[in-house]
Amino acid sequence: MEKITVSITVNAPRKTVWEYWNDPKHIPHWAFATPEWGAESTENDLQIGGHFKHKMFAKDGSASFDFEGVYTLVEPHQRIEYTITDGRIVSVLFEEVNGNTRITESFDPEHENPLEMQRAGWQAYLENFKKYIETQK
Length: 137
Prior knowledge:
This protein has two helices and seven strands, in the order βαββββββα. It is of the alpha+beta class.
């Protein structure tokens, strides 16, 4: 099955974007798709072979799951690749564009939900990240 790709341009330099994307103190503020969800319990060992994990939860208590995996590539301020525990591969590219940063994520789709739903969810994740980092300045 073909990978799904989502992208966004953030009004912040690449070094700052990298920090906000990877620092466990920032991740719970943006790592969810809709306002009805949240994230907590963040671990992030950003190195090849390093493990990351955060719990995503519905704020009404109806559902939660751990989003976790292992890094297979880390090129500081440029690219991250990892394998989620279900075996899907994700690549995140950070590109400088006129002083801003374009983030492009490509990932293997899962087989439970429609592709467009998955694309929309991951795009919403990026929108939350953009909103969070741009309001921190």
